[in-house]
Amino acid sequence: MRLLVLLSRVPYPLEKGDKLRAYHLMARLARKHEVMLCCLSDTATDPEHIEHLRRFCSHIDVVRVPRWRILMKLVSALFSRLPFQVAYFHHGTAQRAIDKAIRELKPDHVLCQLVRTTEYVRGHPTLPKTLDYMDTLSKGMERRTRNAPFYMRPLFQAETRRLIRYENLMFDLFDNTVIISAQDREYIYHPLRDRVQVIANGVDTDHFAPQQQDVKYDLVFTGNMNYPPNIDSVLYLVQQVLPIVRRERPDASLLISGVDPSPSVRDLARTDPNVTVSGWVKDIRSSYASARIFIAPMQIGTGLQNKLLEAMAMRIPCITSALANNAVGATPGEAILIGNTPEEYARHILNLLDDAKERERLANNGYRFVRDRFDWDAAADGLERIILNTPAPPVVETRQRSAVTSPIHSS
Q1: What does the pLDDT read at residue 303?
Q2: pTM for this structure?
């Protein structure tokens, strides 16, 4: 099979969740199939990163979209029904490049990751295609609305409505739809959402394995630190949880490690000598291994928190929210600890810091859980079965669908 994959970002290096998922699935599908890649970038791409991807991609087309064009597109989206997240990634230059790739490469199937890329295949109704929602963008935007400044809420509410409509529209246009977790599937508003198939992430347990390293911190949080749910999480941790912990442990320390920390995240280290913000690190495993406890008090966001899988695979005890664990599915109290309030998080932290045997028990249970449940090979095999069972849609059906859905378009 000749598989064309459409991504909103270059999927390497692996500093973001969508890149991680795309990279591991493509690498494994390429063992049996020819994988061709088209992706977007608003910055220059390191040639070494492209060469790395050539290990398993027979064709790579990176379409550079200048940021001034993105800004113009977002302004024009104010007067359309297209979600801003889709408009941000949809441009005429890229459309022409993808149309050319489809025409010349003649793929048997197209895989789109996130609804951000789906506009590019609307002009190819007879081409078999699969949409990986990954997570539910509309639900994530709805949650962000609750904590947004009052002057931003109308815009966020409008984007939520647009995303709901658009996610439903794409459900009907694609032959197959998959998503990262059963929890995220329930957030899809389409009446036939049960047809969306769950393809969970995996974790590279050869790479993320237990390490012996000097422990410098009590707590660690990792992730893309310009991503709103991660920013919200560390602000909650530092401003609401740590003050309670420090009533008993005044010197409790926290490492915040991850690419592109926002100014609000950097400020946490400036105002608290026991908070360290590392920014990008060459090997994130060193950050995990440098702390006694991994904590991710996620209050907003959707999808599966890869950071939890990686920490558990490295045999580090984990504390998180019920929201994050609903996608992971670990047994609370056995493989993971759940906090619902700052007081509960603080109690879990203090108990683990005081009890090395309990840290070891929780870490070992989490380690076994992840190795038993999350496997990239199994995820890729499941996606392959879904794709290979896709028949070419009848032309008359797709024309009817196209006519129904024509109000949303982008030039």
Answers
A1: 81
A2: 0.86
